[in-house]
TrEMBL record:
Gene Ontology molecular function, alphabetical: arylformamidase activity
Signal peptide: none
Species, as recorded: Streptococcus gordonii (strain Challis / ATCC 35105 / BCRC 15272 / CH1 / DL1 / V288)
Protein name (record): Cyclase family protein
Domain of life: Bacteria
Amino acid sequence: MADLLEIYQELKNKKWVNLSHQIKEDSPHFPALPALEKKDIFTLKDGFHVQQFSVVGQYGTHIDAPIHFVEGGRWLEEIDLKDLLLPLFVIDKSKEVEENPDFILTKQDILDFEAEHGKIPEGSFVAFRSDWSKRWPSQDAMRNLDDQGIQHTPGWGRDALEFLIHERGVTAVGHETFDTDAGLPTAEHGLVNEYYLLAEDIYQVEVLSNLDQLPAKGALISISFPNWHQASGSPVRALAILP
């Protein structure tokens, strides 16, 4: 049996990549939500420095629990701790998104990925790399609205999510944009794929960063957040440990 300290030392020697944006008062965010507020309660002139933060759960790089959209869904505290450290698979569609910001990732894209990299195993975290995070920290670039106020952003297709959930048994998914759904179908139908995903009791991490630094397979993703009571979401510190 491997000693935990040996495993720790091996992991420590690997390359670690920060997958979370740094969040500030002017960070891009879903416009219906308030921005982060931060103020000093005490300063070092008082003998110690204490800050007060006011922030919504869905801010910056964040995790969505099923209860975010679904009545009776799991809260963050109900996600198993072991489901916050997962094998990470990164489907790179950045070139396609560069050519078409309305790109939707499909089941066929996943099958093409598996043809090259092998079958995605049960219990994995699958991330959709679009390089949209390179638009950070511009709110306008992240939303990418046209003259009619319609958002042009990439997203997951329903067939892709159905395949990952029911045929591959993934634990979670993630992406670099604000939403699960692409912008154009959202304008017409709303966030139907986000509702579907959360209704299937799958959690997601949104507004990921630095996916361009990761291999297609072989890395681990670690997701951490405060131990909130009955939270529907939370900003996270997500990181990848590379093989």
